[in-house]
User: Fold these one by one.
Assistant:
Number 1:
Amino acid sequence: MEEHPLPTNYQLQSIATGNIFEDSGWLLDAPDENNPSLIRALYENNQLHKGPNTRGLYQFSDWLPIHRSLIGSYAPVTYKSQGLSKKLGLENLWITFSGYWPERGIQMKTCSFKETEAYSVCGRLDEKEKKILVVASAGNTARAFARVCSDNNIPLLLCVPEDNINALWFDEPIADCVKLIVSESGSDYFDAIHLSNLACQMEAFVAEGGAKNVARRDGMGTTVLSAVTTIGKIPDYYFQAVGSGTGAIAAWEANLRFNEDGRFGNNKMKLMVSQNKPFTPIYDTWKADSRAMLPLDDTLARQQVEAIDAKVLSNRKPPYPIAGGLYDALKDTQGDVLLASNEEAKEAADLFQQTEGIDIHPAAAIATATLIEAAKNNSLEKDALIMLNITGGGEDVFKKSHKLHYLKPQLAFPINPDFEEVKKQLNQLFK
């Protein structure tokens, strides 16, 4: 990989107040502010100077809050659809693909755009950091962080629901610097987050931060950086399935940066985000025109999560109400929240395979299903410039050509674990 100037020069800004401050290392919140707000990176380079493809994700380092580059990354690829666009009667459909598709020049070994987060977040982490990074995940994020941290010798604690650990497959064994703990069978992503929060109360650990981490969002935003620099224009519509909505927030922020860049237009993509029925908390809240998330019964939520195929879309407490969060992104872009069922997603995945030639993840199939429906009901202009964010794919191809290794959990905890017990067992695990 070629050398390029790092660290990237940037400052941070509170969305709620506009206050600008320096990044003291691992800031997740604006200092001395009480109201919840995301913080955003302000880059020294207002215009994006894209590096060569040999840099992988780091070809976009101008707009990544990083101190170093790591080995093994790929950037998302964008191409103009031929098959699906013809089938749907959409003249200007572009697909941004993250996953494993060697024919398109992309070989993300975890087959998911979560790699964009992991390479950016871990690139923000100081090499001298002694604390252990903690990541909670419903599956794909854990797989991406495990791969990146294993390859780059970065200590990591993963917290995943036990029912989701079949998502933790790899083409080679994961190094000992990565440890996996689980919340017991019957739990969901929210329970894994709770477990990770308990770990982060201990001195030895540092929270990755989720949506609050500017590196996570700006890593995910490389999907839009890929699209706009390939197409030469900012799209009119952006389609993506959401669990937390962090990817959509990232897309909006990347769009705003391109508006300031000035070379690609100044429009705002309408964020067309989707959820997998029957788990629809973001949809329900948006349709109620509420900033505050509507109440959701824990037991019902777990049942709904069990019913959906796209398990990665199962966040019960998304960054929706927070200043700079999904509510603000949808309002600012005049976007909408759409729904698709498991059956509609399966049909969409089959159509994508037939027309584009690659398998896609269930979440990407949800997004594709809502695009198909929007095209059918004529809610999109035929010549509109549309970006479809395929957030994962090529897994079938990858698994057929690689022997798989699974990461096994070292510890399992009940849904409501006792903190002292968690502390005791983690201390023994990381002796």
Number 2:
Amino acid sequence: MDMKSIRQFFEYKPLKNIFDRIYIVDLDSRCCQELATADLTALPAQSYDNWLISFAEKMYKPDSAEFFGQMDLERICLSLTEQAPCYIVYCRQTESICVREYQLNICFSDESRTQVTILRQELSNDYPRPLETMNELSRCNTRFQFLVDRLAEDFIEINVETGLCRMFHANNGMQERRVFKEQIAWWAENLIVPEEREAYIKEYALESLMQYLKANNGFHRANYTTLSSNTPQNLLIISTLVKESYGKPAEYIFAYSQDITQMKIQETRNQQLVDISQQLLTLSQTEPVTGLLNRAACEKLIEKHLSCSKNAISGTMLLIDIDRFKNFNDQYGHSTGDFVLKFLGKAMRDIFRSDDIVSRWGGDEFVVFMRDVFDERMITSRIERLRVRLLKCKKEDQDLPITISIGGGIAILGMTMKDLFEHCDKSLYEVKSNGRNNYLIYSD
């Protein structure tokens, strides 16, 4: 499809209201031509890679990494088959202070398969304005054929006044008019899964559908599950209100459906991968006995806070040591020692804030970093609560009173993690030298 044909194709006004951008990519040269559907103005052509980068720069940042993988041209071409003529990508772009959601509908431009057409459709709450005219619908069979073959399962036109509808199916052309209510009932009985039929019939009753459309600036979308060869499929149904501006005033509903089953499956897989990745990340940052952060994760978070903070004092670090823990292990055994470590870990999570960095540094040493806290009363209050809690440690009715020694340091602007730890270590050494079971906050 050459540029002239594309312009003629998108001169059909309803298409301009569905798609706000068109991109034509030549697969041999990897050249990308962009058109704005509002006036079909062709913007300067550029390489596909450069276009992809500029497009991604406007995206909602968490989506950009996955987007590059989805928009790989080889992956797109391999995905486009006779059974799946349209490849769909969902993305979000940051505009001013809001995030807008878009759907990219990608298909081969023609049978030569030398170009792909990317049609951008906005899915956010800034709904498209209502269509203005229906007078071209009787002359659009060829255009409908392109869209049905590549983008949708079917199209339907509903006369709001008469309740009659006319459908256009791939390879079957335009069908004779039917009563919309009867058509919905047939679809519900034969296509929609039983548990969704009642909601489907209620939502697509003509009066209900018109209420949805008028409440949302002439636009409505819904998801339903259908059965094809006893296999569930996800269907996205998009409807828009069309007003006839010639002759007798009339209103029509123009709707189409898309099979989004594979997209839903991919979304599920992507979420599973995200969940697995998050679990692996958590495991890599967590110390297994106490469930607290491990040393590496703790150091990284504290260093990041120190380097980013512009406050004169950015927080307080506490280096906590269980008094004579080796003797405790020798007396009670390592399983009881692990019980004590877990008890201390839970006590620290309960007493310190969720925003504080709490970790097992190694062995019987623990580190707490209280972000942006330097008030002495707040620090000593947390320490005293922790010491009291540990005196109540008990396992199977056996008292296991624990005492701890704590060395603290105040993080001032420009201080490194190494500097701060040395201050805490110096304070802890002094506490141990004076009999343990106490605390001291370093002051230079």
Number 3:
Amino acid sequence: MFVKTLKAENFRNLERIELEPSEGVNIIYGENAQGKTNLLELIWLFTGFKSFRGAKDSELVRFGEDFSKTEAEFFDGRRVQKAQLVIVKKRKATLNGVEQSSPSALSAEFSAVVFSPAHLSLIKDGPAERRKFLDLALCQLSRSYQSALYSYNKILSQRARLLKDIYMRPSLEDTLDVWDEKLAEFAVFLIDKRRKYVEILSEHSKAVYEGISSGKESLKVSYSQGDFEINRKEDFVKRLRALRKEDILAGSTSVGPHRDDIKVEIDGMAARTFGSQGQQRSAAIALKLAEAEIIKEISGKSPIILLDDVLSELDISRQDYILRCLGDRQTFITCCDPYSILRSCGGKTFYVENGTLTEKSRFDIEVKPPPQCEDREI
């Protein structure tokens, strides 16, 4: 799939933009804090999910303005569609002129994979970031997973409130049985979907990582449930009851998908603990590129790739391999210096300054010095 046209009004610092991107690589360059990442964020929102930067909807509206409106005309592999997002306090989505019940409805039509320096948390940080990665990837592929995840989290919250009440009123403990049954039903569904996804993810990310490292290292990804592996509803209910006293004391549920993790290992060693910064970066990129391949494999759609200031941190051989991995997918790459990327690919180039986008020809870039950009450690 690919975006044919993109329009935005009052989005972040982008006052008003209109562009027709290339179906291949699009290089977005300029100095820091000019709006490069804002453009990727804008495109990402058409997946129906929240900002990958963690921003609230109200924070996406240009300062001093009352609303923001963005439009994307895109080809989904079968037909051309048109999506619109209007933000006042919250986002409202329209697809082909029909208002959607929620922005998340767009996820069935528009697919993208984003990688930014913040995504190194996939490797460096705790299990919560890896669970978030899993859930977001699966929600793009399955509406039933979206629904089950929402139900599970809702029941989990209700069970936590009940656990706190039981601590003060022990007579309420018998009511936990009902909640445990409901929680178990959704838990085993989520675990099964996650485990199957991680098996596929491991295969694809292993291949990508070996390419990035020129075959010198091997990546392994596996799903982890800690000391107890749970596959059936009955097993989950049994485990909840065995831990009930501890849960009442803690006021929270100590077992379930909300506690699980993904193990990421390089040559048999935990990447989080023993991986170098370069290895951790390469592993994170491998996971995201594998995610894109899985979306294509399962849905039949090649997702749009959004790379935020990532390639500049890699050596030339790794840059070249990643660009080759992108294949014929539409890609948006932000950078401070476009020279190294232009060496390996064509496409279109856009210069960003004070929230304004200007398309540049290859000749314009080659005869002008690159903009000054602060070094970034990721």
